[in-house]
Amino acid sequence: MAIVYLSPVSWNSIAQRPHFFADFLAKNSKTKVIWVDPLPSRFPKIDDIRTKLIGVEADSISKMENIIVIRARNIIPVEPLNKLYKAINVYSLNKLIQNIKDEIGSQYCSLVVGKPSVFSLKLINAINFKYVIADVMDDYPQFFSGLAQISVDKLLKGILAKADIALFSSSGLINKYHSLAASSLLIKNACSHDFLLNLQENNSDVDTQYLKKEITTYGYIGSIAKWFDWDFILRLSVEKPNSLIRIIGPNYSKLIDLPKNVVLEPAIHHSQIPKIVKSFDYGLIPFKINELTDSVDPVKYYEYTAAKIPVISTSFGEMAQRIDSGFAVTLDQHLNNKHPIIEPPVFWEDRFKLIDREVLYAQ
Fold first, then answer.
1. For 174-219, what is each residue's pLDDT tens digit?
2. CA distances from 52 to 38, 45, 209, 216 (A)
3. CATH number of the CATH domain containing 256
4. Number of domains in the chain
5. Are strands 217-221 and 282-285 parallel, antiparallel or unpaired?
6. Tens digit of each residue's pLDDT (9 = 90 or more) over 223-277
7. What is the pTM of this model?
8. Which of 19, 190, 228, 254 sits at a 20 to 30 Å CA gap from 57?
9. Where are the alpha helices (H) located in 141-251, listed in sequence order?
10. What is the DSSP code (8-state) at residue 347?
11. Range of the domain at 326
């Protein structure tokens, strides 16, 4: 049995839902997981070139031996001109399909599509998969505008129409797209057992670089991109001038002048997150409120709460309900001395076990 996972992110990137899904599949069976890094699709922008040059990403979780990573070569990115994309990349796309077929061999195989793309539809037509699973972790069309948005929306709907089952990472996503799929399942995000064990086994291993008892430390660990609410950070820095605000992760946003009590730090390996988080007094999730974040269930929420760190967040996506339930607070509530309830940990195994094993491990 093999599973092909068309990932929306590369393996060598900050740990996200696809990494934990692949890790779950690899650990819970003898299945070979064939992870396919995302193919380049659009022409790079100036910010893309900057982030490539300075290398903003960090390595993800450790890779199991039965996870095989495949990367496409010599792809010319011209989406959303999809017919042209297929025409000029036909040799490279066919070679990638053959590489995947070679890895599958004579085994039964299912496909998990983590990103709608021209290639994902081409692969579905090229290989007779036992099951096709769409794992929708973001509202992908909202990352784009104009023709690109129209194209991605069409591709997403095409994948959902071909999928035997669609998994959605948030209530917003399943409410918006479930009618397009034959079968739908809400599988929210979570925290890994390894993360909690790391917290417990290294209880005295705390990042002490900034640790001062008289200073309140606010922290954020994750990607910094167009959805990141810098106004939230700037207001917090003014309202809490004697505090320390640590922003840690790959930065895809435009650089701005930061107050002295705000420190911008590079991405770290996932194994380093527990000792960093334990130095926080509060965990921050400052995302803008818009159509893109309406569909987001942040993994960092689960990691903050596993470390028993109270969460301050904007009221977006799944965090809106948590704020209403008292499991997180807004910045205004925090400044008015309201404290959140800290939820018990929720693990990836608890989420993914809801999927029928027949679908995941078809024989």
1. 999 999 999 999 999 999 998 999 888 765 565 656 555 678 999 9
2. 15, 11, 28, 34
3. 3.40.50.2000
4. 2
5. parallel
6. 999 999 999 999 999 999 999 999 999 888 877 889 999 999 998 888 889 989 9
7. 0.89
8. 190
9. 146-162, 171-177, 193-201, 230-239
10. B
11. 193-335
